[in-house]
Protein 1
Amino acid sequence: MKGGPAAGGTPGTAAIETHGLGKRYGSQAAVDKLDLRVPAGAVFGFLGPNGSGKTTTIRMLLGLANATSGTASVLGQAMPRALDAVLPRVGALVEGPAFYPYLTGRANLHRLDAACPYAPTATRRVRVEEALDRVGLGAAAGKKVKAYSLGMKQRLGLANALLRPRELMVLDEPTNGLDPQGTREVRKLIASLAHDGTTVFVSSHLLAEVEQICTHAAVMRAGRLVAQGTLEELRSAGQAKVTILTPDAGAARTVLARLGLVPGTVEPVNDGAGPAAVTAVLPAAAVPAEDIVEALVGFGVRVRGFSVDKGSLEDRFVELTGEGFDVAR
Ligand SMILES: Nc1ncnc2c1ncn2[C@@H]1O[C@H](COP(=O)(O)OP(=O)(O)OP(=O)(O)O)[C@@H](O)[C@H]1O
């Protein structure tokens, strides 16, 4: 957007911060004791399987739902008390805004912008066209929304969030309904927002998506936050795996067991004719790699190859959520 860079917030401050935030529906806690911290300037992935409480959290942050416990602040101000001061600084895509089906995409944006008391009328036409272009809807802007696909409606929702520069963008599953091309475009859009200094808070149940675009992430499971931090921090908190390539698989297993590690299966390499690969999981506070090699050699194990694999973010998230992704609670 050409409307000038967003302020973005001072690095080191939090764009979103919650303490003990919770929401109950009857006896069910949709969100429970949430302590979330989204640093200013981050592209923050809010991950979790379906039903883990992401949308409920976002709704509370935006004043669309009332918390039943705890506190939340957005751009340094308490919510929902400071709603009127905060919302003009926040762009949001949550469950798609209500569009008029018999109006064109462009006319819908004009109406939504006109309904916003903070939007300058003089620049409306230009801002609407820029937002439509930015989400790749320029060519379809004259079509009625009732003829839009789900992906096109999603893009229109994004365009609505982009009508003015914002310090914080909150996007709930922004690639829902988009084809691979549309997904790539949204990723690029998020990167360009971040480049302009906007903090982006994006929920997703797609790990690969978060891994590609985010600097930080939090993981929800059944209403609870189970991890948050930079992607690197989340990765390194996971369990690493050691793999030993050796013709002395039995002896290698013995050494691993003596070191307190649990040896995994022995996999033949090269159809069983050559050495075998022996693996073991290294817990977070594990035996250092050099000590393992020393013990193997000391025991007379011939080592042809040795590697420590930190494990992917996916391994870590499956570890954390138990059920993996795309699973309803
Ligand atoms: N209005 C409501 N009334 C009762 N229960 C609700 C309501 N909204 C959400 N819930 C429940 O709260 C839990 C969390 O839902 P939420 O929509 O926040 O999850 P989510 O992580 O956003 O999932 P999804 O990715 O499927 O949108 C779910 O068990 C859901 O059924």
Protein 2
Amino acid sequence: MEKLKLLIPEDLLQTVRSSSVDDLLSSSSSLLRLFLGLPQFHQAVSDLGDPDLGCCRKNEETSLDLKRRGNLCFRSRHFNDALRFYSKALRVAPPHAIDGDKSLLASLFLNRANALHNLGLLEESLRDCHRALRIDPYYAKAWYRRGKLNTVLGNYKDASRDITVSMSLESSSVGKKQLQNELKAIPDYQNKQTSEHSEHHPNSYAGVDHLPSLQSEVKLRCVSTKEKGRGMMSECDIEQASVIHVEEPISVVISKSYRETHCHFCLNELPADSVPCPSCSLPVYCSESCQIQSGGALSTKVMDKHHVYQNLPDDVVEHIEGVTSADIYYSEETECIQEHQHECRGANWPAVLPSEAVLAGRVIMKLINQGETAMDLSNLQEILELTHSYSEMSPEIKLELHLLSIVLIWCLNKSCCPDLSVCEASVTQTIILLSQIKVNSIAVVRMKSSGDSLKGIASGNVSEKESIQSLEQLRVGQALYKTASLFNHSCKPNIHLYFLSRGLIMRTTEFVPMGCPLELSYGPEVGNWDCKDRVRFLKEDYFFHCRCRGCSQINISDLVINGYCCVSANCTGVVLDSNVATCESEKLKHFLAAPKSLNHHFQVSEKVYADVGEVASSLLNKPRGSLEIEPEICLICGSRRNVEDSYAEVNKAWNDLRRVGELMNSGRGNVFVLSDCLRSIAVLRTSLHMYNKDIANAEDKVAQACYLAGDLKGARKHCEASIKILKKLYEEEHVVIGNEMVKLATIQLASADSSGARDTTKTLSQIFSKFYGSHAERLFSYL
Ligand SMILES: C[S@@+](CC[C@H](N)C(=O)[O-])C[C@H]1O[C@@H](n2cnc3c(N)ncnc32)[C@H](O)[C@@H]1O
């Protein structure tokens, strides 16, 4: 993109940067004309759209080389490395390539099955055997391997069938004899309990979850307000933790950093036997079902060797023919949108362009394939009906969107859709679509434990040398949902959003009375950042000035989160720096300007009143009209603190803490290091307000350091101190508190405090059920 920018003359740059929606047609037309006439443009983008130059093509040589390396690792019993090489080889293996007298793909699946078998991953290995057999149903070794696996898994009927078929395909009499013995060794399935899978589907790995149905009593309505545009509100009283909305996306794209670890369709974590895209080397899927829904079936020519095996018994032929049927892979109930199909022509652009552009490409191609949009995309906006905020975007973003749209339309046209017009209309519509994606797309997240030993919590078996377990949020993808885009943002949301596969679920986190707006957080929340940081983020990333209840009411969190403590001993008052003081003053002025009936300041609940009173009682007593908050002055007793000096001390203490943290994490921690930690935290406490978030973070770090040093009592004390502060900053039962409690439970278990751990886990389950309802168990099964 930088190269392209250099090609644009200054006056056109100005036009583009200052464009509004009304003159988009003219700015995109001028830019498009310029680029199409410049050989440098064609040079710069040629390798993006030309399949012959793409890096995403299959490559037989590379695949064979990776297979050889896998075999070497296998022979030296490095099964994990072998697995890795085989998976890589599968990704680049052309579907019809042959290695010796075997299909390359089939032999790779079987080799991987062997590696998986040796790693004890039996179901995965079984699925790979089945894949090998689907490609080459006369593959004796694959029947044999599958027979062995079925024996271990107790699927005796299947095992007997598999070994019988492999025996029929075996040419040597010694081999036949050996297999005969193997067959005899299989327990008599008629008399034994056979597994439920006797007619099992080897591809039982199900990546895609089904969405729950809505409670019928929940009624929502879309309303419009001057401040926020359209938004959703309740048309009836809604209980806490009710599911209020479920939706499948218009389209999804995986985040670049999770391309190797998560399924490109359902976005769940990949199993060890991931399945590659049949036509390019980019996506990997957790199952054939996801592969087919995303891009199409693995179109391998089944190797026809029937003439070689003409004398096979009828029942063996029946088994061989049965193995190639594809229906077990794909449930027809699922809508097949094949959103990757247009990308897998081997061209580079889907790998190189930003995720937003790939998502835009998917939306465009989906609408074209469904016959909904014209080839110049002129009706795209009408179809999607999403807000875009183009005029609020910065000049640099406007320029980026222009460039990206031209490149995307050009790539789509060259690589997969020659009928798509490369004209100012399609470019303009794509600019709007990209703006809509910026404003409306939602990050698809997964919660993940930070280490394996969260499973250890369940068994009560936590190693002291591992770091404390915690939950991490992974932003695995980005998706566009039509109705979910109508929900406005609040920094104090009353609904919570989570995902099952690609499906989105919204649940109320509190009782919502009839007529109340239903709002979720786009990221920033009270308790996470202070008001000025939230406002800045929403302006920069979502292009609006936040008018939510969290940003218009006074709350303790915004005052203390970055606040300093009072210099007078025993005073609990907070001292603000000038940035926070200005932002909070603005907020108070806003209250005063509002009509009395709407004046939230005087309507604050008793709890908020008491909380604010604890740190800033002067704000509650101020006469109307004089609500300028003075920086560096305690909001209770009026004592002055030099914030600049305190800032320097805090910085130094944090640098020390970070250094100490690194030492601890690299295993070089000891009691002296730990006492350094405690000194730093004491420094923080002399400068920062007792509810400042930095103290919560520092307490958390110290808890981790104590844990690593084996001081479990200390770890618990500091973890509890962190939770105490978080409870002031967020609501008592916020999911963030739940995440912190996972750490507390780990410490309690490690210190054999099972009753404490039980209590913590009980609270934790309560919190998680409030946010995830009955899905809490499914999403946090290890808890
Ligand atoms: C995902 S859309 C929500 C639906 C949108 N209001 C509509 O009319 O389509 C996001 C846009 O809604 C508006 N919005 C959402 N939350 C807001 C808030 N708290 N304060 C002001 N505007 C808000 C902003 O214009 C923002 O860009």
Protein 3
Amino acid sequence: MTTATRTIRIATRRSLLATTQSEHVAALLRDRLGVATELVEITTEGDRSQQAGTSLVGSSTGVFVNALRDALLAGDVDVAVHSLKDLPTLPAEGIALAAVPPREDPRDVVVARDGLTLGELPAGSTVGTGSPRRAAQLHALGLGVDVVGVRGNVDTRLGKVTSGELDAVVLARAGLARIDRLDVVTEVLDPLQMLPAPGQGALAVECRADDALVEALAAVDDVPTRAAVAAERSALATLEGGCSAPIGALADIAEGEEGPELWLRVVVLSTDGSLSVRRSASAPLATDDPQRWEDAAVALGASLAEEMLAEGAGRLDETDPHDPATPPNPSPDPAHEAGSAEVHNA
Ligand SMILES: NCc1[nH]cc(CCC(=O)O)c1CC(=O)O
């Protein structure tokens, strides 16, 4: 049976954000491939514990991804759509990342009471986020705000500001854009202050590796987006081998004098934001062969991350900044312990 004659079953989580993302990909597939599509709702372990009101503090994002992949491997669905930043860096057996559609604006945003920006919030204001990356960067800004852990879907988090429980929350702009709630944004954060999570704003379209769909789905792949997220995730994968600290990364393609160039910025912070290693690098991209961009991107991310580890990025949480005996910029330790492969959910 050719792909043109089958109905493509697309797995989705049940949240508004997830169903909106999956429907977006379904529309792309109908449009580009002329296929019929059907959304199939999958309840994940993470959704169940959120419904039960239990906290998922420190949970790995794999929770949200595995149930969809299981449905894929079982043949219950043909395609799974994820927020790319929620995917663990390790590839999954039997599963292909068949397409990365064009990315949304990857930046983080503030949703604060009374239209306020971060800088306008009085000291002692409460700012909600469940992301160690956002918490560390908020602390690093030195605003004197109180960073409070929050869990739950985008609506739940917005509700904490509406109800007055929190003064502000920090969220991905892309999530709000997808559910058409950009009206609540009071500040878009400059990546200089808040580097997004690797892959933020991008979608991952997966299918079984042995399915002919792998080739067909290339129709919704965006080469520049794939290269950018490949660089970010390659840096993340390399850094995870040496640390479990919060990581922000953002890559972009700019037109240089000699042709397109890939730019990558990465930050690793101590959990409390008091220490950080920040680096950027660029690499030229071959104009004649965009398919080679991904390889160049992976190499750039890995080499930048290696440099950062050599600078002590893997030891930020081991250093006590208040102890004059420990240097603020720890020297490289070739024997650093392997960190966990956990990717935090945001
Ligand atoms: N953390 C969960 C999550 N996973 C993807 C998004 C938003 C969409 C995206 O970043 O692609 C969000 C919400 C958020 O971080 O505000």
Protein 4
Amino acid sequence: MSAKKIAIIGGGNLGSAIAQGVLKSGFVSASDIIITKRNLATLAGLQQQGVQAETDNARAIAAADVIIVALKPYNVKEVLSQFKSAFDPTRQMLVSVVTGVSMDELEQIAGKGMPVVRAMPNTAIAIQESMTCICHRNTTAEQAVWIKELFDQLGVTVSIDEKLMDAATVLGACGIAYALRFIRASIQGGIEIGFDVQTANLIAAQTVKGAAALLISGNRHPEEEIDKVTTPKGCTIAGLNEMEHQGFSSSLIKGITVSYNKIVKG
Ligand SMILES: NC(=O)C1=CN([C@@H]2O[C@H](COP(=O)(O)OP(=O)(O)OC[C@H]3O[C@@H](n4cnc5c(N)ncnc54)[C@H](O)[C@@H]3O)[C@@H](O)[C@H]2O)C=CC1
Ligand SMILES: O=C(O)[C@@H]1CCC=N1
């Protein structure tokens, strides 16, 4: 596969995390990554590793084969429309990780026929542990393989229909925050029953990692693994049932649907 230069437009939380992950993966060398932001102060760490930081989006776009847009949703049209004539559909692809901006809209912004990709990663991309959902249009076979390979280097990828992209945002991207809130609550409980915060943090985080690994390695449904933990008349089922009485599953399901409706209905 040919080497490609990447421009990341919008070096905020996710844009920087993508740059960090790409650097760690070695899939693209530091000198082939440009990241843009209006104020470059927070990009010093990436610059020290050889990434080029820029305030000039036009220069970054012109130099790139792959343009990854990581701007806030309300900024995308305004910022990218200024560079409409700079996009070259014969050699570039536009990859958006932006919530709620469709491939139709991206094509309108970048010009009809522009190869466009929507990717929905999460912040674990910084450590090559993202869950990334992808869909694309107008891409060449080589571009489609390249972009999947890039995200495969940065975690796990799945190809989805665009109509599921908002759902992917909630389950995969927001999901990091939801999982961390579960861990935070476990830490608070752990402190109440005797652990110091560092030990509670380690136990809660490693336990969640182990639970996730059981599902992923065995391709199992959670309840199969839960059944192995719940001793009859034991403490696990007593705790689980109390959590359900207090609305544990229901609160998560409701939170996920409210989050989804926030994207879909605004
Ligand atoms: N943070 C997350 O976990 C995830 C975010 N997303 C999506 O990624 C996008 C970015 O999200 P965050 O990184 O959290 O937001 P952010 O606000 O941290 O990053 C956006 C960055 O764009 C920069 N920016 C604004 N105008 C610019 C311009 N004209 N040129 C260059 N840079 C400019 C801002 O200074 C900021 O650093 C959003 O659309 C969000 O929906 C998607 C999945 C996960
Ligand atoms: O909260 C948000 O809107 C963005 C989208 C997914 C993660 N953060």
